[in-house]
Amino acid sequence: MRVAAIRRTVLTASAVSVALLVTGCGGDAEGGEGKEARGDAGAKKPVAKALTAGELEKRVVAEGDVTGHEVKEPGKKDVFEPGSVSAERAECEPVAQVLSALPAGEPKARVQRLVVHEAETAKKDLPSTDEMADMKEGEAEEAMLDSLDITKTLTSLWSYDADGAEQALATLRKAGEKCAGGFAMTADGDKQQVTKISVEKLSAGEEAVAWTVGTKQDGTAADTKVVVFRQGTTLAGFSSFNIAAITRGEAFEQPTAVIEAQEAKLG
């Protein structure tokens, strides 16, 4: 089932992002009195450089990195194109972007993966038509929902020059605070309402933001887990939803295994 189609037809949900860069400073090779006279104050710290797309490809989670999860490149129908998402209030634009698995700010390079986790109940074969006919009221529906207990996480790495990653994350955090009460947005021409932005606890990278973002479209409510953490000059973004939880109106957990695997790979 396409991720984009799920957003529009099963309910509302999205996907958001993340990455790494480690930079170091070499020492001055000069010696003698001249160096002592100048001191370290005269040395310039090299400007941190963004990782290239090729370098990000080596660091993004891959098949086999997350036990029990399928990792693959998303298709064009799985993601939103740049420019296809907007917020009614300009200050809320950063939230709308990462909710939709689009980058915060303007990264120099980016990569993305779709990570899928099926619960054990989702792996079971659905009852036959005859078996469903014999089920008690509500049992067939529960069996169908169990088959949809699938968590999909769009995982992104975005790399920036200098302090671009820090600035992008700071802007995103501020947007989450300003827009916590909700705002209207449009994704691929479909209007929806962000109803809440609830802060969650998360320890990842050098700094991070983590939210549960509630949305409503055509009267149907949904929650999306949005996480962005910074490692060096790279941001790692995650936008995650669970189809069964959305349909049942139940809470679901952050994609912890995916986040931890990505953090480890960046490290």
From TrEMBL:
PROSITE patterns in UniProt: PROKAR_LIPOPROTEIN (PS51257)
Domain of life where this protein originates: Bacteria
Organism: Streptomyces tubbatahanensis
Keywords annotated in UniProt: Signal
Annotated signal sequence range: 1-19
Record-given protein name: Lipoprotein
